[in-house]
Amino acid sequence: MEPSFEFNWEATINSIPHLLPGIPYTLLISFGGLAIGFFIGIFFGLLRISPLRWLRWPAIVYVEVFRGTPILVQVLFIFYGLPQLLGSPINALVAGIAAIAVNSGAYISEIVRGGVQSIERGQREASLSLGLSRTQSFRYVIWPQAFRRMIPPLGNQSIISIKDTSLFSVIGVGELVRQGQVYIASTFTAMEVYLMVAIMYLAITWTLSIILRQLENKGLVGQ
Length: 223
Known about the structure:
Protein name: Amino acid ABC transporter permease
Family: Belongs to the binding-protein-dependent transport system permease family. HisMQ subfamily.
Strand content: under 5%
Oligomer: single chain
Number of strands: 0
InterPro entries: AA_ABC_transptr_permease_3TM (IPR010065), ArtM/GltK/GlnP/TcyL/YhdX-like (IPR043429), MetI-like (IPR000515), MetI-like_sf (IPR035906)
Mean pLDDT: 90
Function: Part of the binding-protein-dependent transport system for glutamine; probably responsible for the translocation of the substrate across the membrane.
Order of helices and strands: HHHHHHHHHH
Pfam family, one: BPD_transp_1
Structural class: mainly alpha
Low-confidence stretches: none
Largest sheet: none
């Protein structure tokens, strides 16, 4: 028996107005979480290169735990597990931002560590010989160069985090996938709607990739 399914392009187009409200949630969760995760990553990344073992180990544990467990498990723990400990519910949007923050922070900490350690030791020694303190040497010599080298991997992490928001429909966050699920429930056009969801995610990540490529072409990142 021949399959009777026929793709309905009209249903794909008609889903756009119903999916658009999910874009602000997707962007808020991803970029809000990344902004917090960036500062978390700097903190733990610098701890990772500390000469003091008692400072390095908490950072190592944090990185291994959040890089070694799925972000879906992390957001479920935050949304369902933490309220049992805190005695009060957590907003789904807040849980999503928190999950992106702690997850991306673990990866960003490794980006920070690698970026700082990629700067030649001679530059630090030269700045110290010129009379700069260790703090001034890091702030004015090491960090600006390291940050330029961090931008490409930070951009990649941003794209990953944007795509990770698609998992948060399980806690009811109204991002793109959740909006698609709601619309599909009344129209039964899963193939058509999920195609448009994929196109919207691609548009967001592609735009970010173009911005990063422009920065690279202008010599603002890398070496």
